[in-house]
Every structure is written in structure tokens, then in C-alpha cells.
Specification:
This protein is of the alpha/beta class. The chain contains eleven helices and 21 strands. It has two domains: about 1-325, ANL, N-terminal domain (Rossmann fold, 3-Layer(aba) Sandwich), CATH 3.40.50; about 330-430, GMP Synthetase, Chain A, domain 3 (2-Layer Sandwich).
């Protein structure tokens, strides 16, 4: 099924005409209503009339998270406060939070986009969907909630925490769909296994987002829970969850291009990259009223494919995220992403996707220790079995990142679980 076939399956020519029309309108709105954008455009002698369509997109300045922080709290809003019906904010680890305002129309469009994503994952109004994202200022909970209601599904607004209660409700309510982070879904699976309830639930679909995860991790979760797992993407600044989602073919996440205009740029040179080239994802919102954004740098690393999909949708697809440009670690001159470690671990038997990277400095030399949870049976075997596995893991990681690391094997469930976004890196270099 396709939620909005008229929009999701339009020809590229039709789509580009629509995008151009909406881009011109958005640029005019931000120039006249947002002082920050007006000043940025004036600094480069750019006027709204210079933007005649998407072919002129490259002329516009970029927007970063720092721009939102500098104008905290409402300096980037394009509508008066009387028209803002909801406010969300990101929980940034440094500096001020980034604040997002929504008009009533923004909420309606957001709900529509999430309904599209859920339909793409096979969810219907016959399903019962448990929302296990955080509610409140984080956009995940309410974003998924409103989209599911728009679809017509029954919603269980569980939020995060108290996992045993969550799985009890999952069993007792006959939940068929779960929406949560992929790391929390792993924790849910562990809890179901501990309680002996894996065969007592009716779960068939998982909608996972808010953090990067690998294809191998998806396959592992599908096997363990006997479900179909789908990747949903969004940013609080751009809208929230529902900017893109993968269909049943899992060949990239379809971007809802009638609302979000994607670009891929080189994060160093800021120059545009071609189709299927990996770089930083940039979004321009085309229909946002409360907080329209021009060429917003997401920091997420991906590639884009404009070819048609077997599902029938014609909108561009972005590949699974390699990571974030600001999550990249430079260790002894080597660029390392947490996702590379996860992918290497999932290729091996006996390991779990639960790991922690400890970066430190001994003298002038950076060091990397990877703590890896392994199956219980290894701790009952002879020491040489642990040593053998440790060497295998070290070799796999070195092949993946080109860097020798120290591997420390730890017992199952010894690495702290997160009900929100998973934390995989402790950089002690930043603490000294």
C-alpha cells in the first residue's frame, strides 16, 4: 500500500516543478520574516528574486545548528507566536538547545509524513502500535503518536523506561508494531527472552530511528523477534521522525521530497556531490511555516539514489547512514566511525551488538579500547577460547578501520543499556 500515491509516485519532472514552486515561496518567506536569513542573504547580495527554482539552490547560504543556538529561543521562527501551536527542543549535549516551532499546518503535514512512513512499513489501521520513543520536548514520541493516529491505528503511548512493564503491555494488549530506537529494541528483545515471552507476543513490525544502525543489526533483530524492522529518519530541526523511511525492499530510505529537498555535499569543501557519492545530507524544507530551514546541514553521512524503486515510489532514496561527520573520531590519523565497529562485530558469531569504545591518550599516542559483550558460554570455556575470540574480534576491527585496537571481552548485559539514543563512545581525551 502507498498512503499518498499522487505525491509519492509522481514523475521527477512533476516533482521538480512542485519543488521549485515551493522553494521560491519558502525563500521569499524567510527573507521577509526571519531577520537572520535576511542578513545572511544580504551579505552575499542575494535577493528572493534571484531564486527561480531548484536550479538556483546552490546560491543560498547554509544553515547550521549554531545558527539556531545563536537565535535561541525563537529568532528563527517565521510566524508570530500566536500561530505557533507546539514547541519542541533538542537535548543537545553542549550549548543551548535548538528550539522548533510548529503551526497547525506543520503538525498536519508532519502527521501525514509519518503516516506515509508507517504505511511504507506495512502498518495499517488494523494494527496496535506501541510508542516507545520519549515523549515531551523530544520529537520522537509525539511525532510517531500523531502519525499513527492519522493512519487510524490504535496507539499505546508507552514512552521509554520500565521495560518489564512495557513488554507486559505488549503481550497483554496484543501489540503488533513497536516504534523505538534500535538499541532499545535490542533491550526489549533481551527482556522478552529473560521473561520467556518471545513466543507470547504478536509483534510483527518495528519502526526504528533516532540513531544510526547497520543492516546486519536489522537482520539480527528480525531473526530474534520474528518481525520486519524498518528504518525511519528525521531531525527535530527539520521536523522530527518521518522525513524518510525504507520500504519492504530495504534499498534505501525514501525521502518525502515534496516537503524536504535533499542535497549531498562534501562536508569539507561544501561542494555538491553526485548521485551515489557519500557525503553530508543537507535539507531545505519546502512547506514548513513555523521554522523553515534553508540548506540545513544535518551532519549525517549518506548517499542518494534518484532511480525508481520496485515498490512503485519515485522519490529519491538515501542509503543507510555511515554515521555523523561530528561523531567521527580521528585516532592516530585514522577516521573511525562507531558504525564500522558495530558492522565488524555483527559479522562474527559469539558477539552481540552491545559495545563501548574507550578513547584515551598515553603520552602523545591515542589509544582505542573496544569493550565487547560476548555470549555467556565463552566465560565457562577455557581461557584460550576467550583469547581466540578476542584475537578474531581484533582482526575483524582492524580490517574494518585499518587500526589495531585493544579488545576487552565483557560478560553479557555488563554494558549499560539505554532507553534513548545509544552511547557507544567515551572519549577521555576530551576530559583532560
Amino acid at each position: 500500500m502507498i498512503w499518498n500515491e499522487t505525491k509519492e509516485c509522481m514523475s521527477r519532472d512533476e516533482l521538480q516543478i512542485l519543488q521549485s514552486k515551493r522553494l521560491v515561496k519558502t525563500v521569499d518567506m524567510v527573507y521577509h520574516n526571519v531577520e537572520h536569513y535576511r542578513k545572511k542573504m544580504q551579505q552575499i547580495d542575494l535577493e528572493p528574486g534571484d531564486i527561480r527554482g531548484i536550479e538556483d539552490l546552490h546560491k543560498l547560504p547554509f544553515t547550521t545548528k549554531d545558527d539556531l543556538r545563536e537565535t535561541y529561543p525563537f529568532g528563527m521562527f517565521a510566524k508570530p507566536k500566536s500561530e505557533i501551536v507546539r514547541i519542541h527542543a533538542s537535548s543537545g549535549t553542549t550549548g543551548k538547545a535548538t528550539v522548533v516551532g510548529y503551526t497547525r499546518r506543520d503538525i498536519e503535514i508532519w502527521s501525514e509524513c509519518v503516516a506515509r512512513a508507517l504505511t511504507m512499513a506495512g502498518v495499517t489501521k488494523e494494527d496496535t502500535i506501541q510508542i516507545a520513543y520519549g515523549y515531551g520536548l523530544f520529537t520522537g514520541g509525539l511525532g510517531a503518536h500523531y502519525g499513527a493516529e492519522h493512519l487510524g491505528a490504535r496507539v499505546v503511548p508507552q514512552s521509554t523506561g520500565n521495560t518489564r512493564k512495557l513488554v507486559t503491555m505488549m503481550r497483554d494488549f496484543g501489540v503488533t508494531v513497536i516504534a523505538c530506537t534500535p538499541s532499545y529494541l535490542l533491550h526489549i528483545a533481551e527482556t522478552l527472552e529473560e521473561m520467556g515471552w518471545l513466543d507470547q507476543i504478536k509483534l510483527k513490525t518495528a519502526i526504528c530511528g533516532a540513531e544510526p544502525w547497520t543492516e546486519n543489526m536489522r537482520l539480527q533483530m528480525e531473526k530474534k523477534l520474528n518481525i520486519h524492522a524498518h528504518d525511519i529518519y528525521g531531525l527535530s530541526e527539520v521536523m522530527g521522525p518521518g522525513a524518510a523511511c525504507d520500504c519492504a525492499y530495504h534499498r534505501g530510505l525514501h525521502v518525502f521530497e515534496d516537503h524536504f529537498l535533499p542535497e549531498i555535499i562534501d562536508p569539507e569543501t561544501l561542494e555538491p556531490l553526485g548521485e551515489n557519492q557519500t557525503g553530508e545530507l543537507v535539507f531545505t524544507t519546502l512547506t514548513k511555516e513555523g521554522l523553515p530551514l534553508i540548506r540545513y546541514r544535518t551532519k549525517d553521512l549518506t548517499s542518494i539514489n534518484y532511480g525508481p524503486c520496485e515498490c512503485g515510489r519515485t522519490m529519491a532514496r538515501i542509503s543507510r547512514f555511515k554515521g555523523r561527520s561530528d561523531d567521527m573520531l580521528i585516532i592516530r590519523g585514522v577516521n573511525v566511525f562507531p558504525g564500522q565497529i558495530e558492522a565488524a562485530l555483527l559479522e562474527l558469531s559469539g558477539t552481540t551488538p552491545h559495545y563501548m569504545m574507550i578513547v584515551d591518550r598515553e603520552g602523545t599516542l591515542d589509544t582505542l579500547e573496544v569493550q565487547v559483550e560476548v555470549e555467556e558460554r565463552f566465560f565457562s570455556d577455557e581461557i584460550r577460547e576467550l583469547e581466540k575470540l578476542s584475537k578474531q574480534i581484533g582482526h575483524a576491527i582492524q580490517n574494518a578501520i585499518g587500526l589495531a585496537v585493544k579488545v576487552k571481552l565483557v560478560e553479557p548485559k555488563s554494558i549499560e543499556r539505554s532507553v534513548g539514543k545509544a552511547v557507544h563512545v567515551i572519549d577521555k581525551r576530551k576530559l583532560v
